[in-house]
Amino acid sequence: MSWSKKEMALKVASMFKPHTSVNLGIGIPSIVAEYLSPDQNIMIHSENGVLGVAGRPSKETVSPTLINAGKETISIKDGASYFDSSLSFGMIRGGHIDYCILGAMEVDCQRNLANWMIPGKKITGMGGAMDLVNGARQVIIMMTHFNKNGEPKLLKETALPLTGKDVVDIVVTDLGVFKPNGNHFEIIELANEDSRDQLDGSLFK
Length: 205
Hints:
3 helices; 24% strand; Glutaconate Coenzyme A-transferase; nine-stranded mixed sheet; single chain; three-stranded mixed sheet
């Protein structure tokens, strides 16, 4: 069995050192906030100007004015702060975000990331991803291993327009944890031994 989204989120959350800052991308990465331990004391940053996101709000605490960069309603923790976009991106570009968790369309073994457009399809914009992959101290990609057509997202070389070049540190998919090293993907951990059968033996070692 492959990992569920919850298991992927728990795996990513376990990679964070205590008392650090994290930016969670739109989509699957956003659920990581729900599985952080209070003991970790993680400060979640959202590029629209919040530091101290605490996951999903309850029906009693939901507010239409509290949203993340993906326009999802959020709750906040004690000590949270709000600021404008210039300060928010100053934090990112200044290297003050410890971890950035993003989804992806493709990642290649040269550590290149493509996550913002497929030529010929609707473009929603790159958002803050280009800044985040170059400003965060560690970039972790969290995604399904295959796209909707059953094609692998981890490749020898991506042909899609890049979000960032030589920026990806770790990839967590439903099949395992992988590290691109320039020539192939190192297998750090597999969801189970059956996962190996779904990997290209020439690309994963």
